[in-house]
Amino acid sequence: MKERLVGGRRAVLAVVGTVLALSLSTPTPAGATGQAVTGVPDGTVTVEVIAANGSGCAPGTAAVYGNHDKTGFRIRYYDFEAAAGGDAYPTDRRKNCQVGVLVTVPAGWTFAVAQAEYKGRAKLNSGATGLQKTNYYWQGSSENNRTEEYFHGPLNGYWDTEDVSAGLVYLPCQDQKVLNINTELRVDAGTSSGKSSMSMRSSEGDVDTLFNFAWIRC
């Protein structure tokens, strides 16, 4: 299921093939008990950006923060906006940002990404369309999973979409791999007049991208 929130009104949309399924490692990690737990591990969980690049995230404009309760992490973009029509440049219609995140966990534990939530703002004039697309893959893997959501004008306000994993897939115990998160925003002016835009800038309010963990013991 995918959820969208625009202008304070929440609508639930059934979407086929867009669940976040990180099937890039074995479902049961080597050495794991195979039993998920409701708690979080003792010890320190850290997250850090290994690299961030793309037309939507110039150096210093993307950051990652771990949740204090060890339930996941959030990405904040400070200059991530696509626009078309009006005074927008042709190169503004598509923006992307790829962030490489390394999560370090205490010995004896591993995790899966159970849920991801994306937030932003859209100002799409009548006749314009927008696209938010995200692609995930583990470092060194040729496999990847994609999800995308289209928006249609007229639309002016916050948007909120959510991906929930259909089946938890855990990173193998004691593996340390970078999770690459590639997000794209695209705007097509279509038959509209004036400038339309889509953004994920944290300066516009509560628009962090959220990732939630499911923990398991090794």
Description:
This protein is mainly β and 218 residues long. It is 0% helix and 51% strand. The strands form three sheets. Strands 4, 5, 6, 8, 11, 13 and 14 form a seven-stranded antiparallel sheet that branches. Strands 3-7-12-9-10 form a five-stranded antiparallel sheet, with no helix packed on it. The relative contact order is 0.31.
Q: Compute the number of strand runs.
A: 14
Mean pLDDT: 81
What composes the largest sheet? 7 strands, antiparallel
Q: Assess the beta-strand content as a share of residues.
A: over 45%
Order of SSEs: EEEEEEEEEEEEEE
Query: Which structural class best describes the helix and strand composition?
Result: mainly beta
Output the radius of gyration.
Answer: 18 Å
Shape: elongated
What is the CA–CA distance across the termini? Answer: 30 Å
List low-confidence stretches.
1-26
Give the number of helices.
0
Q: Helix content range of the residues, please?
A: under 10%
Brief synopsis:
By secondary structure, the chain is mainly beta. The protein is built from no helices and 14 strands.
